[in-house]
Every structure is written in structure tokens, then in C-alpha cells.
Amino acid sequence: MKKTDLEKLKGTKISGNMKLSSIPDRFGKDAANLPDKREQRKRDQEAGLVPFAVKLHGDLIKQIHTLADKEQKSLNDVTADLLTKALAKK
């Protein structure tokens, strides 16, 4: 190989390494290790979870967020608990 070809190869290696280390730190150190959406969807289906989108008033959402913080649970868990309790009363 010519010297210029070797230098180009070094340059591509360096730029390749820079791309791998460019994951922003704001997402946490293990952000690169998260499963992709397809794997997450498969896990949710195996657990029997179904996506359910709803539009609610902002004040109601704030109350749910507050409750989730107080109980230190995820929003999914708190919402499921609230729905289960409400449906059990009917």
C-alpha cells in the first residue's frame, strides 16, 4: 500500500472510533445498551402488554405523575392500578 492509502485508512479508523463514542452522556452511560424497539415490543407482547394511547387533561396527568413519584412506581404501573381499582368498583 502507498503511504497516502495508509493515512486514509488511519483517518477512517479514527473517524469510526469518534462516531462510536459520540453517544450523548445526557441519556446515561448505558444508553447504548438499551434494547431496540422491536425487541422491547416483543417483550411487551410476551408479558401480555398492549399499547393504549389516551388523551387526558393536563391536570389529571400531573396528578398521576405526582402519585407515581410518591409511590416510586412507573407511570404504566400507576395507571394500571388506577384503572383496575376503578373497574373493580363498577
Descriptive labels:
mainly alpha, Arc Repressor Mutant, 90 residues, single chain
Percent range of helical residues: 55-70%
Number of helices: 4
Tally of extended strands? 0
Radius of gyration: 23 Å
Alpha carbon gap, first and last residue? 79 Å
The second-level CATH architecture of the domain at 50-90 is: Orthogonal Bundle
Question: What is the CATH T-level topology of the domain at 50-90?
Answer: Arc Repressor Mutant
- Secondary structural class: mainly alpha
What's the shape?
elongated
DSSP strand content: under 5%
The H-and-E topology, N to C, reads as HHHH
Q: Give a short account of the largest sheet.
A: none
| Average of pLDDT | 81
Uncertain stretches: none
CATH class of the domain at 50-90, please? Answer: Mainly Alpha
Gist of the model:
This protein is mainly α. It has helices at 3-20, 37-46, 58-71, 75-89. It has a domain at 50-90: Arc Repressor Mutant, CATH 1.10.1220.
Would you give an account of this structure?
This protein is mainly alpha-helical and 90 residues long. It contains four helices and no strands. The longest helix has 18 residues. The mean pLDDT is 81.
Secondary structure elements and pairings:
Elements (H helix, E strand, L loop, with lengths): L2 H18 L16 H10 L11 H14 L3 H15 L1
